Amino acid sequence: MKKFIKNNGTFIALIFLIIILSFLSSSFLSSRNLTNLVRQITINGIIAVGMTMVILLAGIDLSVGSIVGLAAVSVTLLMQAGFGMWLAILITLVGVGGVLGFFNGFMSSKFDIHPFIITLGVMTIARGLSLVLTQGVSVPVTNTTFADIGSGYIAKLPSLIVLLVALILGIIAVFKTSVEYKNGEKVRNKARLTGGIILSIAGFLAGVFIFIGYQGIPIPVAIFAVIVMAGVYTLRKTRFGRKLYAIGGNEKVAWLSGINILRSKTMVFVITGILSAASGILLASRLNGASPNLGDGFELDAIASVIIGGTSFMGGVGTITGTVIGAIIIGVINNGMSLLGINTFYQMIVKGFIIILAVMIDVLNRRESA
Amino acid sequence: MSEKILEMKNIIKDFPGVRALDKVNFTLEKGEILALVGENGAGKSTLMKVLSGVWPYPSYEGDIYLRDQLVRFANTREAEEAGIGIIHQELNLLPDLSVAENIYLDRQPLGKFGGIKWRELYQQAEKVLARLNMDINPRMQLGDLTVGKQQMVEIAKALSLNTKILVFDEPTSALTESEIKELFIVINELRASGVSIIYISHKMEEIEEIADSVVVLRDGATIGDKIKISEVTLDEIIARMVGRDINDLFPKQEFKRGAKTLEVKNITVPDPFNPDKNLVDDVSFTAYKGEILGISGLMGAGRTELVNAIFGVYGKKRTGEIFLNGNQLAINSPADAIESGIALVTEDRKELGLLLDKNLIMNMTLPSLKKFSSSFTIDKNAEKETSENYVKQLNIKTPSLDVFVEKLSGGNQQKVVIGKWLITNSDVLILDEPTRGIDVGAKVEVYRLMNQLVEEGVTVIMISSELPEIMGMSDRIIVMSEGEKTAELTRQEADQETIMKYATGNKGVE
Fold this sequence. Notes:
The complex is a heterodimer. Chain A is mainly alpha-helical.
C-alpha cells in the first residue's frame, strides 16, 4: 500500500485536487467546464510530450514557447498569402517546428554545447522573427474551416464510439501488462488487473460525462490523444525509445554501445519542435488569429508538467503517462484558481511552489530508496 | 611485536535478508601489516565499515577493543579521533584545492576572526609530508599530482589525524609499478613508526611482498585463524578464499592457430594536449583465429588508447588502416566497429560499460538492439529469452532480470558487460582489463570463457596489467611503452623479466 502511494503519488494528488475543487466550486464538475479544461490542457500537453523526451536525455528546450508563437504567426500569414490551409499547416510544421528543432538538436549535440544555451538563443530568435513578420501586431485568420481545428468537436455518436474503442483497447492492454514472470512461469498480478480495469471503466465514464455530456470530443483533444499514444508507444516499444533511455542513463556507455548520439538527440529536438509548432497552430485556430507574443512562457508549463510527472532532470528516467498527469494537474490548478476568482498573478506564485514541491518529493523518494 | 592494539570479537552484521558478517574474529598488533583477503562480497568492506564507524554500534553485534578498551563508535568522526584511518580505493580528495588544504580540510589553523592562517597551514602540511619522505609542495593544486602522489596526500591526511590503525582498501589498483614500490616503502616506514596496517587487496603477489600475516574472509566469516605469511603458500590462501582448491589459476587451453582475422597497420593517435607526442604511435599487429593475443605494458603505455582507436573512439583523428578477414574497414565510431564485427569490453565497467540504474536486459541487448527488432519495435520476449540464456551460460548470479545492475557484485557486473558483447556475435572480442576488481572465482570463470570463445572461432585480444594473467592466458604478447609497440613475444619467449624490459622502453622490434 505504501509502495502504491509512492509510485502513484502524482495521480493520487490529482484525484485529491479534483475532489477539493469540486467542493469549493460548484461549476468545476460541469461537463462544459471540464471539456474546456481538457481542451486547454492539450496546448501545453502536446509540447510536454516532446519535452519529456528532451528531459529524458538530460536536456532542456527553452525555445518551445517561441516556436508556438512563430508557428501561429506563420500559419496565419501563409493563409493570408493565399496558401491552402493544409499546405500552410504542413509548411509551418516542417519549416518552423522541424527546422528550428533540428537547429536546436544538431547544434547542441554536434558541438557539445548545453541545449540550455542553444535553445535560449533560438527562443529569442524565434520570438524576434514573429515580431518582425507581424510588425508587432496581431494577424487575424481569414480561413473559416481553419477555426474548426481548434474549436470544433467530433459529433456525439462518433465520440461515444471512439470512447468505447478506447475502453476495449484499454482493457486489452491491462490484460497484457498484468502478466508477470515468476520463476519462469506466467503469473497474473490480480491487483494490477482489477485496478487497471476499474481505472479503464472510470476513465470511460469520465469521458462520457465530460464529452458526451457537452458537445462531444474537442478535435484538439483527439489530436492530443493520438500524440500521447504515439509517444507512449515510442518510448516503451521502439528501438528509438530504448536509445533515449540509454543515452539519458549514461551517454558515454550508449555511444560505446554503438548508438548514434547525434542522430537520436537531433531527432528528439526535431520532434519537440514539430509538436510545439502543432500546438501553435491549434492555438491560432482556436483564437482565430495570432499575436506575436503567443506562447510566451509556455516552456515553463511544459517543463513543470514533465517534472511533476516524475521525469528525472538527470535524464534516463521518466514516462509520458506521468507527464500527461503532470499536465492535467497544472491545467486543473489554473482552471480551479480561475473559477475561484484568484488573480492570475497569484496563480503564478502557487504554480511555482507546486513545481518545487514535486521535485522535493521526487528527491526525497529517491534518497529513501538509495 | 606482541602488543595487541585491536581486537574484533564475534562481529555480526545483518542487512535485510543477508548476514554480511557472521562472527568475525581477528586481532591486530602494534606495527603489524595484516592482509585482509577474500572474494568480492566476502565482507571485507563491511567489516571495515564497522571498524570505522560507518555502521555505528547498535547496527552490528559483537565487540571492538582498542588497546583492550571496549569502543563503540557512533560515527566516523569518533573512529577517526580514536586513531582509525581508511585510505579508500577511490580517493576522497578535492582536486581543485591545494595539497595542504586537502590534508587539513575543516581543521585549518584559524586566526582571531576566523580567517585561515595560510603560512601555518603550509608549514604543518610540510611537516606531515616530510614524515612520508615525500617531495610534494603543499601549495600545489591536488589535481596536478599523479594518482600515486594524491594517494600519498591521503596518507598524510590520515597521519595528521594521529592515526594508529590505517586501513588500505585496494590501494594499488590505479598505481604504476614504480608508484607501488614507493607506496610499499611508505607502508614499511609507517610500520616501523608503530602504525598498524590492515591491507585489503586482490593481488596475491602484493600481499606476499608487504604483509606480515593474513586473515581470510569467506561468506562473511573468518576462515581459520590469522596466519603468518611466511608459514603459508599463496595457493593455500586462495584455497581458503574460494573454499576449494584451485590447482590451475590459469586454465589455458591451446588451440591450433587459424586464419588471419584482425590486422591493423600504422595505427596512430595524436595526443590532444601535446602536439609532439602520440598517444598511440605507429602500431601494427595481426591477430588470428584460435589464439588469444595479449597486450601488456605499464599504466599509460597506450594500450587502452590502441584498442579504443581500433574501436573508433577517436573517430577521424586516428590514422592507419584496419583490416578484418582481408577487407579494409572504415571505422570512425564505435557504431562502425560493432557493425564490422568488433566488440570492446571497456576497462571501466561502471563509467563506460554499464547503465547502472537500468536492468540486466536493457544492458545486455543495448549494442545489438537491431537483432531484437523488426523495423522499429523491440521484441521484448526475444530480448528476455536471449538475456536469460546468457545469464545462465555466464553463471551470472542475480535474483532476476529486472534488477538494476548496480546491485550486482563486481564479478557479476563484469559478466554482464561481457555478455552484452557476446550477444553481438562479433568476430573479434577485445577485453580491456577483464578481471580488474573481480574475485578469484570469477576470474577463473572469465578465463574459461575466453578459452571457449577461442575454440568457437572468436579472435580474443586481452589487455592486462597483471603479468601472471597475461603470461598465463595469451598465445602471443604485444608489449607497449609510451604509445609504441616495443616487442611481440610468443608464449614461450615471454617471462616476467623480458616483458618488463620491453614495457620500460627497451625496443625489441623495429
